[in-house]
């Protein structure tokens, strides 16, 4: 089967700072790195490195050929990525000494994906394939509607959280993943907790505490591995990509989440985003205290 990802592609400009800047503060950074990023690209790379056939639907600008080349290098099918006239999306990310971050996001070409491009890509999808989206591109509702008609499993990472965007896709979802803050934002927007949603699979990621999985409202907890985090950027996307790959391979959800927790634990020990996502061999061989 195939994981189809309607996903963002960004240049991640990561600044190592002594602390996260406050309002009006000018802060000198200790280091700057540029990585391939965007929640979509991160998830595609994670799923591909976990061994799943992954096709990315997205857009880059005239300045984005390097991103296309890197996605191809990491095993992602890039035939459905088009070049737009606007610049490639990018993110400015500040990471402090504890590995926490804040992010400024410029959408760029991620909002230039066309209906024709989406339709052409999904015309190659087969019943039983997975379709995943995040809230960083155009055409999420259109993709969800089309995917449902084609018999795809519809998955959604509700980030960055915007109530209207999330509410629009909820009726189509088979699988929803969000963090604790986003779960509370969803409750505030809908008046419902995740246990009240009519969605078969829901995962709430809990950072260093692990993840909670709801199967038709019934919860199971999966603790995280204890590691020294240096950068939490991309850890949630790595987790999601590995969970989707596990689903695609027919793993029981508990096994898929356990493997995804291992991948996320490795990811937070590294500086960077898509370029440093661990592959399946690293995840299986990793040793944790």
Automatic annotation (TrEMBL):
Superkingdom assignment: Bacteria
Residues of the active site: 237 (proton acceptor)
Function comment: Catalyzes the phosphorylation of ribose at O-5 in a reaction requiring ATP and magnesium. The resulting D-ribose-5-phosphate can then be used either for sythesis of nucleotides, histidine, and tryptophan, or as a component of the pentose phosphate pathway.
Activity regulation (UniProt): Activated by a monovalent cation that binds near, but not in, the active site. The most likely occupant of the site in vivo is potassium. Ion binding induces a conformational change that may alter substrate affinity.
EC primary class: transferase
Cofactor(s) annotated in UniProt: Mg(2+)
Domain Carbohydrate kinase PfkB per the UniProt entry, residue ranges: 6-278
Keyword line: ATP-binding, Carbohydrate metabolism, Cytoplasm, Kinase, Magnesium, Metal-binding, Nucleotide-binding, Potassium, Transferase
Gene Ontology cellular component terms for the protein in this record: cytoplasm
Any GO BP: D-ribose catabolic process
Chain sites annotated for binding ATP: 179, 205-210, 236-237, 261
Protein name as annotated: Ribokinase
Binding locations of K(+): 231, 233, 267, 270, 272
Assembly mode: Homodimer.
A GO MF label: ATP binding
């Amino acid at each position: 089967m195939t994981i189809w990802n309607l996903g963002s592609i960004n240049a991640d400009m990561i600044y190592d700072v002594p602390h996260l800047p406050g309002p009006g503060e000018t802060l000198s950074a200790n280091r700057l790195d540029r990585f391939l990023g965007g929640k979509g690209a991160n998830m595609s790379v994670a799923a591909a490195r976990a061994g799943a056939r992954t096709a990315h639907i997205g857009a880059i600008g005239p300045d984005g050929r390097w991103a296309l080349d890197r996605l191809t290098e990491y095993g992602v099918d890039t035939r459905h990525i088009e070049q737009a006239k606007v610049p490639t999306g990018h993110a400015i990310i500040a990471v402090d000494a504890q590995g926490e971050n804040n992010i400024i996001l410029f959408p760029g070409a991620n909002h230039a994906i066309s209906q024709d491009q989406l339709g052409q890509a999904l015309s190659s999808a087969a019943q039983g394939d997975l379709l995943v989206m995040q809230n960083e591109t155009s055409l999420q509702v259109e993709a969800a509607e089309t995917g449902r008609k084609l018999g795809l499993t519809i998955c959604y990472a509700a980030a960055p959280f915007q109530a209207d965007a999330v509410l629009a896709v909820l009726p189509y979802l088979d699988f929803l993943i969000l963090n604790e803050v986003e779960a509370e934002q969803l409750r505030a927007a809908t008046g419902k907790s995740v246990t009240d949603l009519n969605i078969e699979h829901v995962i709430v990621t809990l950072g260093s505490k692990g993840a909670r999985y709801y199967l038709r409202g019934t919860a199971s907890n999966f603790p995280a591995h204890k590691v020294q985090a240096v950068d939490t950027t991309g850890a949630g996307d790595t987790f999601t990509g590995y969970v989707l790959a596990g689903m695609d391979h027919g793993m029981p959800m508990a096994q898929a989440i356990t493997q995804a927790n291992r991948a996320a634990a490795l990811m937070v020990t590294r500086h960077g985003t898509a370029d440093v996502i661990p592959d399946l061999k690293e995840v299986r061989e990793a040793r944790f205290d």
